[in-house]
Structure prediction request, 1372 residues.
Amino acid sequence: MAKDVIVGIVGAGRIGIVHAKSIAYEIPGVTIKTVADPYLTDEAAALLTKLGVENVTKDYKEIINDPDIEAVFICSSTATHSPISQEACKAGKHVFCEKPVDLDIDKIKATLKVVRDSGVKYQVGFNRRFDHNFMALKAAIDSGKIGDVHVLKLTSRDPGPPPIEYIKVSGGIFYDMLVHDFDVARFLSGSEVVEVYAAAAVRVDEEIGKAGDYDTAVVTLKFENGAIAVVDGSRKASYGYDQRVEVFGSKGAVAIGNDALSTAVISNETGVTSEKPLHFFLERYMGAYSEEKVQFFDAIRNNKKPPVGGYDGLVSVVIAEAAKRSAQENRPVKISEITDLND
Amino acid sequence: MAKDVIVGIVGAGRIGIVHAKSIAYEIPGVTIKTVADPYLTDEAAALLTKLGVENVTKDYKEIINDPDIEAVFICSSTATHSPISQEACKAGKHVFCEKPVDLDIDKIKATLKVVRDSGVKYQVGFNRRFDHNFMALKAAIDSGKIGDVHVLKLTSRDPGPPPIEYIKVSGGIFYDMLVHDFDVARFLSGSEVVEVYAAAAVRVDEEIGKAGDYDTAVVTLKFENGAIAVVDGSRKASYGYDQRVEVFGSKGAVAIGNDALSTAVISNETGVTSEKPLHFFLERYMGAYSEEKVQFFDAIRNNKKPPVGGYDGLVSVVIAEAAKRSAQENRPVKISEITDLND
Amino acid sequence: MAKDVIVGIVGAGRIGIVHAKSIAYEIPGVTIKTVADPYLTDEAAALLTKLGVENVTKDYKEIINDPDIEAVFICSSTATHSPISQEACKAGKHVFCEKPVDLDIDKIKATLKVVRDSGVKYQVGFNRRFDHNFMALKAAIDSGKIGDVHVLKLTSRDPGPPPIEYIKVSGGIFYDMLVHDFDVARFLSGSEVVEVYAAAAVRVDEEIGKAGDYDTAVVTLKFENGAIAVVDGSRKASYGYDQRVEVFGSKGAVAIGNDALSTAVISNETGVTSEKPLHFFLERYMGAYSEEKVQFFDAIRNNKKPPVGGYDGLVSVVIAEAAKRSAQENRPVKISEITDLND
Amino acid sequence: MAKDVIVGIVGAGRIGIVHAKSIAYEIPGVTIKTVADPYLTDEAAALLTKLGVENVTKDYKEIINDPDIEAVFICSSTATHSPISQEACKAGKHVFCEKPVDLDIDKIKATLKVVRDSGVKYQVGFNRRFDHNFMALKAAIDSGKIGDVHVLKLTSRDPGPPPIEYIKVSGGIFYDMLVHDFDVARFLSGSEVVEVYAAAAVRVDEEIGKAGDYDTAVVTLKFENGAIAVVDGSRKASYGYDQRVEVFGSKGAVAIGNDALSTAVISNETGVTSEKPLHFFLERYMGAYSEEKVQFFDAIRNNKKPPVGGYDGLVSVVIAEAAKRSAQENRPVKISEITDLND
Prediction:
């Protein structure tokens, strides 16, 4: 039996706890030694102890400096992702970093340089690629069943907007929400975006507009291989978390829908009613959060390339920036205007 | 019992025959007296006689000059729509004109002026508005069940491209195909388009590109009321005629799918398989072709406004022109750049 | 052009009018010369005149005695089906007889003997065989895609019970409702029923029980070829007319569902809701009423065997009688106990 | 933090391992101290060690005699369920017993007497009650949304028959397969079965018939409250594990379908294809295996009644016996003929 991979987790907020529980309950062969969070709640501390975490601390340096720890999960606030990533890499630790790596493109590039120089495995938390539906969609495309990809349609709607204070620091709808969809579009198209056009509006909450952001957007992406993607996003769908994709190609189309709590269908005088989609990302993507880690640890153990790398983290943010600029300036924006990706 | 409405049909090609059969078999209280077509086939003549048509001629003037005829269906080639419309209106006849009224916006405006001056009923053949699915969608929106409209998504795919010779005179994908979707988007949104952005490509057949047209397009429409629509179109879907719409609003969403020949679902070793969509527009929209005429004759008999008027025919072509220009110049194009609709 | 088939219709109640309209509007090459009904309403008379019926009378003998009339539709009350069938056959006319031919098995046999002796075409109105969904189901079975048939499941639910006065003369749920399903089960299985077990109950309306009938039933049919069918019927489904079938075989299964007015699906806070089934048989089976006549006239014109013959009318009633006896005596009842079908 | 519940597992075959993994990975607060199996494979032993099981033995008496162990999972062969249940109860241990408790009704009754006398918690492994779909179905019924239950339809098809050697000792299709459905029918109807009629056949494999068993069956159950259920079962569905239920009542109907690996739908020239059902019970009911244990441990910790008790285990076997007798004697069989349940 191979010995366990020893990990540390930086950040014990919502997503940090998701990773901790998922590692403890579902992923054999991994031990969480230390969890660091300066604002750790008593409730979180109790849960972590129950999960068998040896060391719960306020100081993430205890993770960076611990020679036993092989891999670090960075689940702290966005602004800390880049610096802690760099420290962890320099300490020779593999890194799983939540998205986005940074809101600043130059800082992402600087971090990626450290990653390359250090030679560690670096994975970015684009969880949707690991969802059972998205994986089935990708497999259908790769099988050749739909031929060359012509058009991709992605729907991305949240059940409700986050607090306005969060929106103000989130980077906006393109960085915070649709960055996932931009990553998925690249993943599915098998090509790179060359130009972006975004039509955006404030329809859900005027406060979001006052904060300089949009809550409704339709983004067109043109790809190198001639495919065109369109992503429509909204901060609020009254019926829950709506995450669907359709890919249309020369030989056919493949589409995925939402998951629901059950297949129950009720027929009565008012109609034929089935269940709403699972409420939000924790419900919908719980399996994906496991699968992304299974593949991360597989990359570590078997010296493979992580399935989503730092470059993917960079490109999705560049697309988000292009979309933001497009919406603000009402014109198509080339990726090459934003940055030189070969740089 | 009211006496029959006497009609003439100009053009006995595919769509003219559809109207003739539908009037003869499904619409009580209407008599087709004359059908005119300079290229009338023997087969069509025999069918028309069987349907009880009294007079089959090469000369449409026999219709214009016949005082018995109250209403004229114009189903001839596009270039003749405007002049024959004007002649018929001036002769005091109600007109049902197949779309588009013209490929030239000024000519449409001139025709609409004649319509206004003559005071006849003038209906344009945007059949989709009368399809059972589109009507149900519209009813759901009007009921308030989905609240304010935020985003409209229209998919419009043909089972295969027409002959390249047809494409060359068709006005292109925006005028020939997506003009229907532009009309539907206006119909459903309850608002007017102010700006258009079109991303278009040649993916199906290079000959289409050589003819100066596109076969694949994604068009974003911004509406006065803040709604955003996106129309994706393709000249070729391997699985048949794909006509779906989804409308997303503040309180929910409503979507319509395709019709199929049956509800049969086969489960076997290879999967769970249901039927493809009905093959093409004649199959899918046969009911709509009846319903549009039922409402046209109701407008005549009861002196109502026709459900789709000349202005609708004009605006949809203006949007098509804006989309074409947008694709060619790769920039958002305002409707006001194309023409003054208040003119 | 072949000359028209001249027909007479006996009975201008609901189903007689359905046939008259369908012939007039949808079936080319057939002329309705005479419609006879002793209780003809003014409204029906006006409609028939509008449909072009030459002669509207109270006396069906005018049809029997008219040498011009080639085919007779018998749409009068059940008790008259047998005697009028015999008269029409003896007069050399082809007959389309609504189901059931009779509630009395010996009378059906007597009528079938007259049919055989006269050599006319005789079709029984089992409309479901001609519904687009049932035809697709049958085609799937015949294609071999599901292999040998093992189990058939038929659901047959009405939107509400008929008036109790009708129920009292209807022959009961097995003769009046499920006789259709027994016919469909034979049609799909490609085999003959040998034994019937019926579990029946009164759950919808106690008055139905007081009339000696049931309103809820589950009937098991064993076929010669080893297939087993189960039919569940109810006089009242709150959500409308529910007519579904599933056939399970050695290589797979095929199922058909209900038709609805549209494919519209509304997603909102309460769930994801689609339309109820079409309300009742006139809505659901309107296409089947046309198709059964298309095939009847094809049999006449081209001297083919009618697709549903008198024997089918007999056997379905024999199964109904076996089901009734089974429910009353709570035991499996063999078809051979009811009658000798080779007789 | 409450101290862990200490458990032992008797039997480390397929289902014993399912329980061990599920406890180790998904159920906090439970420790597996000992697993006993006289035929333990090396592979199973290694896995159990990895799961943290302290003691792996051939002798289940080590579990019975261990005062630390509070609860015993009985996952050994059917013939041992009754005697080990009795030993464990007498030793004061709570018991989770896989179904069936026994193939012999008198032995089940004897075991239930020991359970009652010992006062321990006793749960039978009817996992389907804990499946997300079945729970949603039950909730819909309990909510009153479908009114009084009139008809229940259960489909139960395996992807393929077990080895003929297993079938010979399994008790047959009614005891081995459909006993689950009989339990579900009781659970959903909220009433007790009074009479059973089973039509059964050998259609899948003649060897099954030679072994005195059936592979295809349609079973009608009459309930005290007037509801009628029909269960159709097959040992082989080419498309996988098919487990669907529909419940029809005075106000509407509720139905559940199968789960699939993804929602992906491919449209191409051959049709519109979605995924087959999850392959078999381990895939379909993995969540149910967790949930049944969550509720078992909740009953232990909080001194509640287990959600499926010994009586449920008894009644389902009595129904199976009645079904078997009905099929063999071709007549409806009353439950009271089989045994006195009040005994």
